[in-house]
Design goal:
Elements: E1 2-4, H1 27-41, E2 50-51, H2 53-59, H3 64-76, E3 80-81, E4 88-90, H4 95-114, H5 122-140, H6 144-161, H7 165-185, H8 195-205, H9 210-226, H10 240-244, E5 253-255
Length: 256
């Protein structure tokens, strides 16, 4: 029997982490999955960072078998790579993959908005404003990782609020892959997601103007892509224990 402590403060199993890859994982494995996934999305684990089974098993006080299952699930989501004979590492998207991800996001996110037939209900607007408030707080605290995480959460909550959970799951995956792309290719000084764009989206989506909101989303995503310089930059490694055991870090998943 497993004695599980929360791995990350405030970690919500119903939150905007992709759910497809977590199907079949046990509760302890799901918590490890979500902790590593959040570290990738928030760019605390950078592209190219090695993820060794032995070290992760020690960090979470669990078995290598559990870690192997988690790594396979993360690879299914496209956020880590499992090159034969080299071990797991955080994925390093190519420039071609980067362009494909943003093209997919424009098609899916703008298309989902354009297909809307009703205004957003108050509960959805409240959740979006909550994301924006958290994004603003992170920016004021100069917490880039949290700011990126909340920016991505905004897009996922919007997709959920539009009533299509399948599309929301796809968008959650694309948001995670976008974070890797931004970590690799963002030009110095560029802003990954303009906060005032999110404010304008909320305002426009609150009224009966789906075409205008869809055009705004396309422009918003295009501006993020325009801030990328498609030349791979070397990604520094990192101390997994320090990264995963930090402010959102690991309390062990104990195997009794």
């Amino acid at each position: 029997m497993n004695n599980i402590a929360p791995i990350a403060e405030g970690l919500d199993p119903t939150g905007p982490t992709p759910l497809r890859a977590m199907t079949g994982l046990t509760a302890p494995e799901t918590l490890v999955f979500k902790a590593i996934h959040a570290a990738i999305v928030e760019q605390r684990l950078l592209p190219g960072t090695r993820l060794t089974e032995e070290e992760l098993a020690a960090i979470y006080a669990t078995s290598r078998m559990r870690i192997r299952r988690v790594l396979l699930a993360l690879a299914h989501e496209g956020v880590i790579a499992l090159p034969p004979g080299r071990g797991a590492q955080v994925a390093c998207p190519t420039a071609e993959e980067a362009r494909a991800v943003f093209e997919a996001r424009r098609l899916i996110e703008a298309g989902l908005i354009a297909s809307r037939t009703t205004t957003l209900d108050e509960g959805v607007v409240h959740r979006l404003r909550t994301c924006r408030a958290a994004e603003t707080a992170a920016a004021r605290a100069h917490d880039r990782g949290a700011m990126i995480g909340q920016s991505g959460a905004f897009h996922i909550e919007l997709a959920r609020g539009l009533g299509n959970p399948v599309m929301a799951d796809i968008i959650a995956n694309l948001v995670a892959r976008s974070s890797l792309i931004i970590a690799l290719f963002q030009r110095d000084g560029a802003v990954c997601c303009r906060a005032d764009d999110h404010d304008r989206l909320i305002e426009t989506l609150s009224g009966p103007r789906p075409a205008a909101a869809a055009a705004m989303m396309r422009a918003h995503l295009a501006s993020i892509e325009a801030g990328l310089e498609m030349a791979t930059k070397p990604a520094p490694g990192g101390d997994l224990r320090a990264i995963l055991g930090g402010r959102r870090g690991a309390e062990p998943v104990r195997d009794a």
